[in-house]
Amino acid sequence: MKFVNIEKKSQGKFITRYDVTYETEIGTKKVYEMISREKDIVDEKGLNGKAANAVVIIATNEDDSKILLNKEYRMAVADWVYNFPAGLIDPGEDQYQAAKRELKEETGLELYDIEDNLYTSYSAVGFSNETNVVVIGKARGEFSKSTSAEEEIEAHWYTKAEIRELLKNKKFAARSQAYCYMWSK
Fold this sequence. Notes:
By secondary structure, the chain is of the alpha+beta class.
């Protein structure tokens, strides 16, 4: 594929819609619709040259016997979905500060031990260039309601057996589903 150009189609509060034009190896033109958190992409570098937009938190309890999941009402699918806590990285924050803040805001828990982080990945590479960084650690404390009145989140600790049951008949975000499957084996 050869990049030809990018055209902004519409600007929302949180996302921007673009048409990206490519030329295929056989010389045909392909226009690809996509969304981005970036408001002013003007060239090919702008499609993939940014730092992570968001953080995903994979947390276990102190003895690693349970994993933390949010059950969150997601408006785009009009349903409850199981997912790891996550959120946007605010200006001036690094991934660790964002992970601690987001976990506290969404669950009330404290991310007290950061064990690792994963390299930047794409949220939904089929239609967006939004990127995440995954922070892995341990959390503790008491659950509390999300501090955002615009989010409906129920956080809970799950054992491996409970995860295996959820995977049989509950909807997950793809990354969370795959990780939970491997963790619960």
